[in-house]
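To start, an entry.
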Amino acid sequence: MTNILATYTPAETHLILHESNAWVKDLLKFTMMDLVLKQVLVTKEVSRKPHPKDRARLYIYILAGKNYGTYRPLPHEKIFLRAFDKSPSIEILFRHYVIMCVQNARGEKHFVQELMKAAPNLKPLFKSTLLGFLFGTLKLTDQGESIQQELNKTIQYYNDTLPTLIQQDPKVALERIVEIGGNIFLLSNLDFSLLKKFDHALVAEIQRLSTAGKYAPDGWTWFEFEIYLDMFDSVFDAYEAAADNSSGCDSACNSCGGCGGCD
């Protein structure tokens, strides 16, 4: 029996579960983390000094991963890959990359209504009404409500069982993680500190269980994902605050598509 969480990306799952209450920041964040987990995107850390007299700082760049060339992105994922479609070898500073993707999303209404909701996987699950399109509200169809209930039960099952499995039976826990893929980021009871204890085992087991190394690039750790989730939130919030204050974001954001050579 197919695990229902394997049917949807984490952003799709989140949208079905929360409907109009799904925040675009979370939809974008879960999409980016899922693409990193799938190795469609990868990260690169570089330590360098902004100035010879300064202390070394760590810079994180986003690059096209080894699965980028063969991956077939969904409409809502394409905005994360647009820069690499134009230049596959480009390296983009994490902060610039997040801002670029936020701009590519063109607002919550466009991202949800035109990119996510209109996708074949989700279209039957949401009602299409003029008022909903105009005001950006979402309402599930009967089929959508049935899927929502099943997703809620499945998420709750993993919330209840996975933390214990990680401590008592790591091998089975790893199999469960592979089953749900990027939807692991949606679990409310997941303690990253538990996962850190099994970083090496997680990497080895996920690589063994996954087809053609679909998940877990070499050197990958849960600690990095915890950092990336926090970094995404910080960059998004700062960008939104600057936009709200009309503080001239445009000049800072025009460089987002560049090589990432500036900080």
Remarks:
- Residues 185 and 219 are 19 Å apart (CA to CA).
- Strands lie at 41-48, 57-64, 92-93.
- Confidence is low (pLDDT under 50) at residues 210-219, 248-263.
